[in-house]
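Researcher: We're reviewing a set of sequences before deciding which ones to prioritize for further study. For each one, I'd like a predicted 3D structure that I can look through quickly. This is 3-phytase. If possible, include the structure in token form so it fits the rest of the review sheet.
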Amino acid sequence: MASIKSIAASSLLFATLSTACIDQILAPADDIVFASSSSAKDPLAWAGANSPYRAGPDVYGIPNDLPDGCSVKQAAYIVRHGSRFPDSGAYNGWVAIQERIQAAKTAGNLSAKDSLSFIGDWKTVLTNPTLQIAQESMTGYKEGHDLGYQLRARYPDFYEDGNQFYVWANQYASPINKSRVVQTAKAFMQGYLGEFADAYGTIVSVNSTGSVNAIGNSLGPSDACPAFASGAGGSSFSNDTDFEALWTPKVMKRINALVDGIDFTESDILQMPYLCGFESQITGRLSPWCDVFTDEELEYYEYSQDLHYYYGIGPGSTTPTNLLFLPFLNRLMQLLQAGPDQQGKGVNGSTFDIPKLIMAFLNDNQIAELTAGMGIFDSGAQDRLPIDKIAKDRIYNVANFITMRGTVAFEVLNCTSTSSSHGKKTTSYADYIRILLNDAVYTLPQCKDGPGGSCLLSEYASFISKRNAAAGNFNDYCNVTTAGHPAIVGGASFFSDLTLDFLQFVAPH
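Model: Here's the predicted structure for 3-phytase, in token form for your review sheet.
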């Protein structure tokens, strides 16, 4: 028979373990296994924007655990769509490579060895291109579903079963059910609400070109910005091409030494890492193309993508990129400052509860545009990326935040602090904002002294407000001339007004 002392000790141990396990979330950090290939330790990590979702590294050495004395009272997640099938242009490039390989094989000229020995039997992995092109893949569905499960567990007090829940999604494609962004939102709803998704979940599809009222008031503001459209194809995109010329010839020579009967071009070389990332997430199995490159070669490929986004549609762009999402950010900060339990304007004279967890789904370009204006990549945090070598210590790395299902999160932390004066303790409370990219903490150069690298919410909201005011009117810097456009754009008024004429409602099934 156990002694009272041993029972007490066991009870204490159980209580200690129970307390320790209270905040242990069961959702894994990553949705898939990141496997090694025969030639690279971590090939999918170098796929950049073509990589499946991966939790980002602690670039500032700050854990994403909830800081002591803090609780999360609200959050907003801006999320790229999940992994997908290729668009038609990329797919046609794959088919062209396949046809050249098969032509050499048919002529009896093809001979390949080592890591290329598979190419004689290689076919593109799309089994029904008409159905699959540009749609979400099974990995993309898993990423969206897993995110819903993860956030429901992370913020258990944000939602109760039986309440209505809204998320917002960039429409992106027509018809709506062909939008991979909306498809990701549907998968998220299934993960977040589970069995009750259809009964209580609604996806608000935001059509960035659906009305003049959507100008500067959508999840795709560049779609209504003529100044951006006219400059997006300019010289800012040449930096990645210049860098590619530094490394692709050497890799092309090595790869062509493994094959006879076909000469791969520099364009082909750039397609192969793309195939590594896409084929892997489409099939759920590591692509044989991942065996072709070393980690060093893939790092060059990834840095080319960094340059593409940084100078094309990121902080280094000559277009109004870093201004496009300022009205959106300004409105979002106003919502977060207003606090939870706010009511929005619903249809037919009704109201709705603005979620404590605000979810918005969009595309990779919008993630690049959004982060360009947030302040996290300002000059105090990041020098301009060199185009003649890899910046090893760079913070701007698209593999860490513009992956498939890449995530920009704003957490509102309510934190306590205690001070003593004349022997009397005083407890005070303050709201801070913490920024997470793919679940890793990113700090602001000018404001990072709060708990866990956070910034006072009021201070960050003021920073965004001043930056938005300094930028001027969206219509001016975007050269908007559309008749009837709003004098002052709404930014993100759709989060609190469901009656806007460019919104449509979509069921989660």
